[in-house]
Specification:
heterodimer; A: alpha/beta; 5-stranded mixed β-sheet; 13 strands; B: 344 residues; alpha/beta; Rossmann fold; 8-stranded mixed β-sheet; 12 strands; ABC_transporter-like_CS (chain B); ATP binding (chain B); P-loop_NTPase (chain B); Peptide ABC transporter ATPase (chain B)
Chain lengths: 369, 344
C-alpha cells in the first residue's frame, strides 16, 4: 500500500502546462499496464474523460476492454510497481475536485477512499466479509472516517439500510451477508458505499448478478440516491440497456481505449463508430418485434497483450477498407469531435470521414436495427 | 390439480408432452436423514413442445426453469407427472432405457468452461456421443467430427486442440457440435448465451437459428434474458416459483401479456434507448421471490402482486386458455376481451 498512485514510467510524461481541471472528476491520458510473462497487458491505454457532480457516466464495453481496471485505477486500488506479479504500471492524471490523485500521498488517497469516492462491486457475496454482520461492516466503514461512538454509527447504519429499502432494518442490521438475498446484499453494499456521503460513486456491473425485477429496483435506487445526494456516478456495464436507463454520458471502450464518447442520446441515436454499431446490432431488443437476424460483430475481442496496430477494431471492422486516402492501417485514429453534434461533446475515433460514417449509419445500419 | 387438455389439432404434432410435472428435492436432517421438507422446484407443469418450434422458457433465478430442462431431458427423475417423448413415456426410464432416447434429446449447457472436460481434446469431446452410443459414422468418427466442427463455424483443423485454447464463444460452439453429433430431434439449451459477451452472443444466437432451419431441430431454450427469448422463440412459457403462469406465442406475450407477473417482468427490462426512459411506465415489484421450500398459498405470486385479492391467497388459479393458444394462470388477468371467468 505504500506506493499507491505513484506515477509509473509508461506512456507520455505528465504535462505540466496542462490546463487546470474545471470538472469534478477529470481523468487525463490514464494508462494502466500489467507486466506478465507473456508480455505487457495494456488494459487501459490512454483514456481521458470528465464528469460533473450530479451526472452519470456509463462506461460500456465487452469483457477485457478495460472498464473494471479503469474503475479500480480511479479508486487507487491497483498495486503499483514496475515488475512482479499483479503489479500495475500506471501513468496519467486523475483530478478529483481539483486534487491530483496520482501524485498525492497514498495516505491522503486512502482517506479520500470511502469518504469522497466509493465503489459498488458486481458480486456482493464476495465483496462483503462473510464472518461479520452487515451492520458491523457498515459501522466499520463509517467509523474509519468519522469520530463517533459505536451507538451513533449503528444508528447511521440502520438509517442507511432503511434508505436503500431493506425491510425491518433495525433487525436485519445484525444479520450476516448469507442471510440476505442477492438483491438485499446489493442494497446493503450500496448502503455501505453511501454511508459517508461520497461525491463520486463507481458502480462496477451493479446489477449483472441480479434478476430483471430486482435489477429494476436497484437501478431506480441508484437514480433516486443520486438525485438526493447529488453525487457523480460512474456505471460500468456491458449492458446497453442499463446505461440507457442511467447514464447522461456514454463512453464506449474497446481494447483499452475509448472509441466513442458523448451524450447518451447522441451515442444511441447517431453513433459514429463501427464498434458501437456492432454492439447495437448484436443486441436483441425487447421493445420491437424482430424477425430479422442479429448483426453480430465478426471475430472476437483482441488480446490486450497484442492489440492490433492502428485502430484496435480494424480486424473486426466491416468498413476497414473505407478510410480516406492517405491514412495507413497502422495509424491510430484519434478521438475527434463530431462536427455539427449538439454541444460539441460527441467524440469518435474512426478513420472514416464523418460524411461516410453518417451515410453508413443512416442508410445501412439504422434501418436494420 | 386438474390438467386442462391442450388443443393441438390442425397444428404440428407435439414432439414432447409434459403433464403435471413435479420435482421436489427433499431436505433431510439428522443422522437418520429424516425428511423435514422439500424444495418444490417444479410443481405441476403441463405443456407440449411442437415439432420444429422453439419454445422459450423464462423466469427469474430459482423459478425452476433449469430443473424443468433437466427433467425433460431426464437428467433428473421427476417426483410426479409424466414426460412423453414422441408418444413414448420416458418419465421413469432407467439409464439403459434412456440410452436410445439420448440420440434424439440433447442438451446445451450454460457454462462453456465447466461443461467441457479440460483434459480431453475437442475431437474426443465431440466424438464422445458416437463412442457412448456405439455408432460408427460413415467415413469414420474423425471425419464426422470435423464435419460437425465445420457446421458450427469452427476450423476442422482444430480437432486436436484442448478447450482452454478456445474463447468462450468458440467453446459454446464446441458444446453445440457435441449436442448435434447424433442428429437429435429435440435440443434443450439451458442459458446458451448468458455467459457470452454481447457481440459473441449474437453470433451464437444466429448459429442456433441457422442450425434449426438446416437440420429441422426443435428447441427448448431456457433463459432469463427476455430480449434473447423474444428474439429466438416461437412460443414462450413464463415460470414463477415452479409453476407456469403464462404460455403463449411470442407476439401476444410481448404485446398483450395477461399475467401481472409477465407484465411486471417485461416492464423491468431496461430498453437501450435513452429517450424512452422517462416515457415508460414501470411496474416495480416489491421484495424478492419467496422461498420454494414454503411457497405462498393459493397463487404463488400473490405476495408481490398489486392486483391480489383474497381469492388469490386461498385458491390456486388453474392454467387455462383465455384465448386460443394463450394460457394464463391468474384470477385477475390483464387485457382480457370479456370479463374474466376465473373470479368465480
Amino acid at each position: 500500500m505504500t506506493d499507491l498512485h505513484k506515477t509509473g514510467a509508461v506512456g507520455e510524461p505528465v504535462r505540466p502546462d496542462a490546463a487546470p481541471p474545471t470538472a469534478y472528476l477529470d481523468v487525463r491520458d490514464l494508462r494502466i499496464h500489467f507486466p506478465t510473462d507473456d508480455g505487457l497487458v495494456k488494459s487501459v491505454d490512454g483514456l481521458s474523460f470528465q464528469l460533473e457532480r450530479g451526472k452519470t457516466l456509463g462506461i460500456v464495453g465487452e469483457s477485457g476492454s478495460g472498464k473494471s481496471v479503469t474503475s479500480l485505477g480511479i479508486m487507487g486500488l491497483h498495486t503499483v510497481g514496475q515488475y512482479g506479479r499483479g503489479k500495475a504500471r500506471i501513468s496519467g492524471e486523475i483530478w478529483l475536485d481539483g486534487k491530483e490523485l496520482m501524485t498525492a500521498d497514498p495516505d491522503r488517497v486512502r482517506r479520500l477512499r470511502g469518504r469522497e469516492m466509493a465503489m459498488i462491486f458486481q458480486d456482493p457475496l464476495s465483496a462483503m466479509h462473510p464472518y461479520f454482520t452487515v451492520g458491523h461492516q457498515i459501522v466499520e466503514a463509517y467509523r474509519v472516517h468519522n469520530d463517533v461512538d459505536k451507538k451513533t454509527a449503528r444508528k447511521r447504519a440502520v438509517e442507511l439500510l432503511d434508505r436503500v429499502g431493506i425491510p425491518q432494518p433495525d433487525r436485519r442490521v445484525d444479520d450476516y451477508p448469507h442471510q440476505f438475498s442477492g438483491g438485499m446484499r446489493q442494497r446493503a453494499m450500496i448502503a455501505m458505499a453511501l454511508v459517508n456521503n461520497p461525491d463520486l460513486l463507481i458502480a462496477d456491473e451493479p446489477t449483472t448478478a441480479l434478476d430483471v425485477t430486482v435489477q429494476a429496483q436497484i437501478l431506480d435506487l441508484i437514480r433516486d440516491l443520486q438525485k438526493e445526494f447529488g453525487s457523480a456516478v460512474i456505471v460500468i456495464t456491458h449492458d446497453l440497456g442499463v446505461v440507457a436507463e442511467l447514464a447522461d454520458d456514454i463512453l464506449v471502450m474497446y481494447g483499452g481505449r475509448c472509441v466513442e464518447r458523448g451524450p447518451a442520446e447522441q451515442v444511441f441515436h447517431t453513433p459514429q463508430h463501427p464498434y458501437t454499431w456492432g454492439l447495437l446490432g448484436s443486441m436483441p431488443r425487447i421493445d420491437r418485434e424482430q424477425t430479422e437476424r442479429l448483426i453480430p460483430v465478426k471475430g472476437s475481442p483482441p488480446s490486450l497483450i497484442n492489440v492490433p496496430a492502428g485502430c484496435a477494431f480494424n480486424p473486426r471492422c466491416p468498413y476497414a477498407d473505407v478510410p480516406a486516402a492517405g491514412v495507413t492501417r497502422t495509424e491510430r485514429p484519434e478521438l475527434r469531435p463530431v462536427t455539427g453534434a449538439e454541444g460539441g461533446r460527441h467524440l469518435s475515433a474512426c478513420h472514416m470521414s464523418q460524411e461516410e460514417r453518417t451515410r453508413i449509419w443512416t442508410e445501412e445500419i439504422a434501418p436494420k436495427l | 390439480m386438474s390438467i386442462p387438455e391442450q388443443q393441438t389439432a390442425g397444428g404440428p404434432e407435439p414432439i414432447l408432452r409434459v403433464k403435471g410435472l413435479v420435482k421436489h428435492f427433499p431436505i433431510t436432517k439428522g443422522l437418520l436423514r429424516r425428511q423435514i421438507g422439500a424444495v418444490q422446484a417444479v410443481d405441476g407443469l403441463t405443456f407440449d413442445v411442437l415439432a420444429g418450434e422453439t419454445l422459450g422458457v423464462v423466469g427469474e433465478s430459482g423459478c425452476g426453469k433449469s430443473t424443468m430442462g433437466r427433467l425433460i431431458t431426464r437428467l433428473l427423475e421427476p417426483t410426479g407427472g409424466t414426460v412423453e417423448f414422441q408418444g413414448k413415456d420416458i418419465t421413469h426410464l432407467g439409464v439403459a432405457g434412456m440410452r436410445p432416447m439420448r440420440r434424439d434429446v440433447q442438451m446445451i449447457f450454460q457454462d462453456p468452461y465447466s461443461s467441457l472436460n479440460p483434459r480431453h481434446t475437442v475431437g474426443t469431446i465431440v466424438g464422445a456421443p458416437f463412442r457412448l452410443q456405439g455408432i460408427k459414422p460413415e467415413g469414420g468418427v474423425k471425419k464426422e467430427v470435423q464435419r460437425l466442427l465445420g457446421l458450427v463455424g469452427l476450423n476442422p483443423e482444430h480437432y486436436n486442440r484442448y478447450p482452454h485454447e478456445f474463447s468462450g464463444g468458440q467453446r459454446q460452439r464446441i458444446g453445440i457440435a457435441r449436442a448435434l453429433a447424433l442428429n437429435p430431434k429435440l435440443v434443450v439449451a439451458d442459458e446458451p448465451v448468458s455467459a457470452l459477451d454481447v457481440s459473441i452472443q449474437a453470433q451464437v444466437v444466429n448459429l442456433l437459428d441457422d442450425l434449426q432451419t438446416e437440420l429441422g431441430l426443435t428447441y427448448v431454450i431456457i433463459a432469463h434474458d427476455l430480449s434473447v427469448i423474444r428474439h429466438v422463440s416461437d412460443r414462450i412459457a413464463v415460470m414463477y416459483l415452479g409453476k407456469l403462469v403464462e404460455l403463449t406465442d411470442r407476439s401476444s406475450l410481448y404485446t398483450r401479456p395477461m399475467h401481472p407477473y409477465t407484465k411486471a417482468l417485461l416492464s423491468a427490462v431496461p430498453v437501450p434507448d435513452p429517450g424512452r426512459r422517462t416515457k415508460r411506465e414501470r411496474i416495480l415489484l416489491k421484495g424478492d421471490v419467496p422461498s420454494p421450500i414454503s411457497p405462498p398459498s393459493g397463487c404463488r405470486f400473490h405476495t408481490r402482486c398489486w392486483k391480489a385479492t383474497e381469492v388469490c391467497s386461498s385458491q390456486e388459479p388453474p392454467l387455462v386458455a383465455l384465448e386460443p393458444g394463450h394460457q394464463v394462470a391468474c384470477h385477475h388477468p390483464e387485457s382480457v376481451p370479456e370479463p374474466a371467468p376465473a373470479t368465480a
